């Protein structure tokens, strides 16, 4: 252990830790869940501290030596290094001050290492005076939240949905001529092609991609520059613009300064909106996974219209059983993501006066939802959708046995007579064709033409 000093006195810190007294206090104060802040959130903090150092250098508030040292250390964090030195639990101070100071201390101590000074000496860089210059946890943590969430949407979820859309588009083309029975209310309905059915799934996913793009735009306003309560106290008037310009160069995500810094720090409505978009995507993916699971039910006593890839044994007691495990995995991932988004919505209400005090939990929940949805979607695409095959015999049998083909007879014999035919066919276990011909409602030629399923799609 080594002894460090902060505003509350001395604190024993692990000898090799790059963090300092403030972080160690948080470690001791918040041993709650064992869940640390998301890796991409910490990386985004590193990028933000780099941009702040460069902005302060350009504005003449930080000398070149300190700015260079901070920039080197901050970019190391952005590159994913030193992750073991960010131990603070998610359930901490609601502003994220502990994490902000964790980042400041790691940067300062890394600067000491690089300059040959002892860790904890605060030479040549001070964690508050230099790393946090012109900043507050109250504007840096909301900024890192938007930065990291937008990056996660762009880098993780969007590519996963694009990959799924391509797989579904390929299946739509392959299945386009396969005529099958449609279903509404889980009951037989009029015919549809399997390609048409999959085109609906494809459109859902494409809308999901558009929702991701909209969510990224929703996060474009950054709180940096507001410092403690949104007034910008101790900050340079051009600081926010300078920082955001640098961030845009690095991320290509086109952020802008918050139009109102008081809203940007007191409210988390943008994150609640993003959570809503993620819930819509979760709903779409759940519907697709469940439909494919049901269409593949059987193999002999279910619908059996699709053959799902076999990925693992389905039962510890029933030999040869294979289950739709990838569909079930994705449904569970969506349920989990939906729960995380519900948490974000609840967190959004806790913006009391000038600051929302649930920022670490919002960050954790959004990143969990995005990561699980992205990974679940990727696996579902690769191990289920890509290998889907058609069971043409089952589709043909279901189509031939459907009573709802009678719908095509409405224009010829009317709704009431068509209803009578369907009910009689069902009650007697006979075909529609037999009943119509027996009751002499249509000629055989006209009936065959009307009951052709390929003419109904």
Structural notes for this entry:
It is built from 16 helices and ten strands. The protein is mainly alpha-helical. The chain has a two-stranded antiparallel sheet with strand order 1-2. Strands 3-4 form a two-stranded antiparallel ribbon. It has a two-stranded parallel ribbon with strand order 5-6. A hairpin with a 2-residue loop joins strand 3 and strand 4 (187-193). The chain starts with a strand and ends in a 7-residue tail after the last helix.
Radius of gyration: 30 Å
Q: Overall pLDDT, averaged? A: 97
As for the number of domains, it is: 3
Structural class: mainly alpha
Sum up the overall morphology in one term.
elongated
- Quantity of strands, as a count: 10
In quaternary terms, these chains amount to single chain
CATH superfamily of the largest domain: Fumarase/aspartase (Central domain)
Following the backbone from N to C, one meets helices and strands in this order, namely EEHHHHHEEHEHEHHEHEEHEHHHHH
Helix content: 55-70%
Low-confidence stretches: none
Family: Belongs to the class-II fumarase/aspartase family. Fumarase subfamily.
InterPro entries: Fum_hydII (IPR005677), Fumarase/histidase_N (IPR024083), Fumarase_C_C (IPR018951), Fumarate_lyase_CS (IPR020557), Fumarate_lyase_fam (IPR000362), Fumarate_lyase_N (IPR022761), L-Aspartase-like (IPR008948)
Organism: Coraliomargarita algicola
Pathway: Carbohydrate metabolism; tricarboxylic acid cycle; (S)-malate from fumarate: step 1/1
